[in-house]
Amino acid sequence: MDTDLLIALLNPTIALALGAAFLVLWFYQRHRPYLAVLGVSYCVSAPGFLLQYFTLPVGMVLTKLASNLCFTFAACCLVGAIIARYGRRVPYVAIGILAGGGLAAFCWFLFVEPDLTWRILSMNFGFGGLSLLVAAELRAVRDNGPTEKILFVLSLLSGLNFIGRTLLVVISHGPFTSYDGFYGSSYWTTALLTHALLSLLIALSLFSAAALDVMKALKTETHTDPLSGLLNRRGFEERALLVLQHCAAAKVPVALVLADLDHFKALNDRYGHAAGDQVIADFAAKLRAAAGARAVAGRIGGEEFAVLLSLSDLATARLFAEAVRTHYSAGSVDGLPPGTRVTASFGVAARTGDEGLEPLMRRADEALYKAKKNGRDSVRLSYERAETVFIPDSGSAS
């Protein structure tokens, strides 16, 4: 096997391997469709590379058209998948204009005014535009993590490769008048090698991003209570400690609200565990809706919940607890007989000084105990203040 053939087979082999890897990854993560699109993108690009070197029985012209159709479809899939992976809205119109414009120009210089050099420039400029479009979309998220930053840089390099390298080679060694000697030219060699390198680097970055997604999902599962959808005790404590640190650094108030469903065991025994689970889920949904995105909410026990409210003093936290209590006690719960009233008791404590999470929770729990002891369906507060250190007057008698 000669060197030219080895080089020609390099890209389709890499593309098929990467495509298969992404499809296998998607098979185990069906909820991430961008992985399937990436797999299709790399697999479709493989015949595109093969048709650049081998000619079909339909002739050279139609073979080149088929090859570039594969490239265009693969590029559109790759661009859409990368942008979708990072939660950006896929710009289908822009993708269509860049890809369709490049392909239309290629067809013009293939069928109407045959010119190999302009065909090369047309396709490379179209792909370069798509690469820069990815960079433009990733610009907003490039500081979110290492994979975002790496893919942003690779997209810029890919755009420079398609546009800048092609122009330099064509100016230096072109124009190309025919395919005779084309596959041994500096353009073809540099195109194959740079594309293989960039494709591999982009794929590795996307694999890293997918691995981070899996790790994040596993961490979320270990920190989330499946019934309520809120943080479990471990997740709540870890997140609450971070919030307390940030609030201390910013010198802003923070308060803790503990809630406990009243007579939950009796409800569970009377109506069954399914109804009890529905009560838990219903209260958690109302608590999450009231807390919003800025609060840390968790289910820290069987029927006990906690909400850490940043930028909230004791009065604000009390209003929050009263609002949740009133709203919940006035509503009904699916799975329970009509008219069945379910209530909750609340204990509220505001942070004093640099108080840690454990003493803050202890004070809120004491206030909750008072609410349960004094009739339930109520809110009680902890009025404890930070301890002060007595410093004797230096002028006093010893």
From TrEMBL:
InterPro entries: Diguanylate_Cyclase, GGDEF_dom, MFS_trans_sf, Nucleotide_cyclase, Rev_trsase/Diguanyl_cyclase. The chain crosses the membrane at residues 6-28, 35-54, 66-84, 91-111, 117-138, 150-171, 191-212. PROSITE patterns: GGDEF (PS50887). Coiled coil: none annotated. Its EC number is 2.7.7.65. Gene3D superfamilies: 3.30.70.270. Signal peptide: none annotated. Keywords: Membrane, Transmembrane, Transmembrane helix. Pfam families: GGDEF. The keyword Transmembrane helix applies. Residues 252-384 form the GGDEF domain. It catalyses: 2 GTP = 3',3'-c-di-GMP + 2 diphosphate. NCBIfam families: GGDEF (TIGR00254). This is diguanylate cyclase. It comes from Mesorhizobium caraganae. The lineage of its organism: Bacteria, Pseudomonadati, Pseudomonadota, Alphaproteobacteria, Hyphomicrobiales.
